[in-house]
């Protein structure tokens, strides 16, 4: 059984379709024996706070760094919005800071940035274009502010594993193994998640294991991911969030690129 002390991907009420406060998430984390959570609400033009995402998340500064003994990192899950790997708000002028985009305001000051594809920006025929998806994920990883590539196994954008994972390795970025993808979404995502994990194991790419909790009751719920990782003999040393210290170190490394 793996030791995992940190849940690096959780949502609070700020995501609007999530159901718990940050305090509730931290308290449930403590009850489960975790030592840290990252609050990574959605920064998106299509869901959550939409055009107000940047301001909503920017105000994480009012939160303490620790709640009930649990380290709380202030983060964001930001949408990848096109096949060039651009992120939400990269071309949207900030409402209050002239000359800056929303992404320029938000991303450099977050502790954790997860980049994920959500509701497809391309609704139909191109989603299966492996070459385009591969370029998209590589470009998102090249963004200096991105630390983690989120749930790439369940976003309906199949990609070539080696170039994406080698980009992650070169830049010391993390690939997320999202337990919700292997639980709720297992039927459509299970196989892809397993292939991604096997390739990370073989290439020596660091992963994060996350709950993607949308309520406090799901914080630290890693069981589906752990079962899969154990079945493929995934080395604990490549799980970046196994301890608070290893997660901090992996974040610092990913910022250096
Ligand atoms: Zn997501
Ligand atoms: Zn999420």
TrEMBL record:
It comes from the Bacteria. GO terms for molecular function: phosphoric ester hydrolase activity; zinc ion binding. Residues 6-82 form the Polymerase/histidinol phosphatase N-terminal domain. This is PHP domain-containing protein. Gene3D superfamilies: Metal-dependent hydrolases. Transmembrane segments: none annotated. GO terms for cellular component: cytosol. It comes from Candidatus Caccousia stercoris.
